[in-house]
Amino acid sequence: MLELHDGPLHVEEIINRWYIDIRYKNFGAFIPFIGIVRDEKGIDGLSFDIYEPILEAWFEAWQKKAEQEGAMLLMAHSKGDVPNHTSSYISAVLSPQRKVGLRLINDFVEDFKASAPIWKYDLIDGERVYAKNRSMPLSGAGLLST
Amino acid sequence: MLELHDGPLHVEEIINRWYIDIRYKNFGAFIPFIGIVRDEKGIDGLSFDIYEPILEAWFEAWQKKAEQEGAMLLMAHSKGDVPNHTSSYISAVLSPQRKVGLRLINDFVEDFKASAPIWKYDLIDGERVYAKNRSMPLSGAGLLST
Amino acid sequence: MARIEFLGPIGKEPVEVDIKNLKELKEIFAQDEKLKEWLGICAVALNDTLVKSLDVAVKPSDKISLLPPVCGG
Amino acid sequence: MARIEFLGPIGKEPVEVDIKNLKELKEIFAQDEKLKEWLGICAVALNDTLVKSLDVAVKPSDKISLLPPVCGG
Questions:
Q1: A48, A77, A137 member nearest C43 (Cβ)
Q2: Considering the entire predicted model, what is its pTM?
């Protein structure tokens, strides 16, 4: 399940709701990854744009991969502004055994960083500044350049 | 921080408390691993014995290792009986960046399985049956055998 | 006319172009000074699927998206 | 007398023994039929630190623990 929220994520609400939803599904490991906006480089927070159709297709492909190992993925992400010390991103793996779960949370989060169509901006003095240096070109980038 | 609880862990209370404690400490990644007792092989639950002095020393050694990478570890474990579909084990890594955190949660949980002085029993018809087949000899086992 | 969308930080309104394939789009964009800095780093999606080749036919009902470098989380 | 504790599933009460090193403990235990199944799989701690060698001196105030195979979580 993929959920998008306006502004910061309510970590307690989301984690508790997910746990209540899944605790009788007989998974042995529940591994959330919670991203929290760090106060650094003088920013007031981050801001995000998301292209939902491709994000959803990317997530569904990962969900199928997880299901083949008896596992399940959950993900929440913020749209718009997210102040320092609040959360913009939570993903979680549910798996029967720990080894599959620990591998999947690593691979899923890493591929998320490389492939999810989400654009990050630093919030500095009320302005959105594209975090170009921390961003990664998607697969096939440069196709239209001369 | 290492905390031991009698009976099942209250997942929501623990995770929420940890999150509230750490959210202003400027870690970028909070990665809990939550172990949930699976209903399998006809058990009613699990039960645990813990030898606390060695568990605490083991945890403190890991905490020092984590601190050297700017990270921090949290752990909760049950003593005694833990029914199916409740949690007996939560550990969490806090780290500035995701890569260190994802590596540490994997390595910490794996070493926990191999090294933490905790004994597991299946609860079957009210009896505690030592889970010998799923248990791992500690480093140096067999020293006193002839 | 195919519709071209410029996602995220590109900050450009969608345009409609009369093209038969992506090669023609590349030629049109080559004349756009403001797009130059983006073309080298943008991926391209046709109807929400990333494409890797310019030899892709484009129909008038198609949607083409330019996706700059990403950084979720 | 050093105190010997049998942890977890061994289910045996602590005993006190008069030994100068772990080699002597091994000799005493070799005569205990009920311990036989455990000795091959148990690790040994001296004052809560795992030891790897039998050439370890034991003082009367020492605590020795036998730790069977573990399975936390």
A1: A137
A2: 0.96
Asked, for residue C73, whether it belongs to a domain, the answer is: no
Residue B134 lies in a domain: no
Q: Which amino acid is at D61?
A: S
For B40-71, the pLDDT digits (tens) are 999 999 999 999 999 999 999 999 999 999 99
**Domain CATH number, residue C43:** 3.10.20.30
ipTM of the complex: 0.95
Which residues have CB under 8 Å from D29's CB, separation 6+?
B144, D35, D39
Average pLDDT over residues D10-22: 96
Q: Total domain count for chain A?
A: 1
Chain segment C56-65, per-residue pLDDT in tens: 999 999 999 9
Residue B144: which of D9, D42, D71 has the nearest Cβ?
A: D42
The count of other CB atoms within 10 Å of the CB of residue C24 is 15
Q: Is residue C26 part of a domain?
A: yes
Residues whose CB is less than 8 angstroms from the CB of residue D62 and which lie 6 or more positions away in sequence, other chains included: D2, D3, D46, D47
- Model confidence at B146, in pLDDT bands (50, 70, 90)? confident
Q: Which of A103-112's residues contact partners 24+ apart within 8 Å by CB, and which partners? A: A104/A66, A104/A69, A104/A71, A104/A73, A105/A31, A105/A33, A105/B31, A105/B102, A105/B105, A106/B102, A106/B106, A108/A62, A108/A66, A108/A73, A109/A33, A109/B98, A109/B102, A109/C73, A110/B102, A111/A62, A112/A75, A112/C72, A112/C73
State how many domains chain D has.
Answer: 1
- Residue D45 within any structural domain of the chain: yes
Question: How many CB pairs lie under 8 A apart between chains A and B?
Answer: 97
List the structure tokens of C23.
């090669």
Q: Is B40 helix (H, G, I), strand (E, B) or coil?
A: coil
Q: Test B135 with D67 for CB contact under 8 angstroms.
A: no
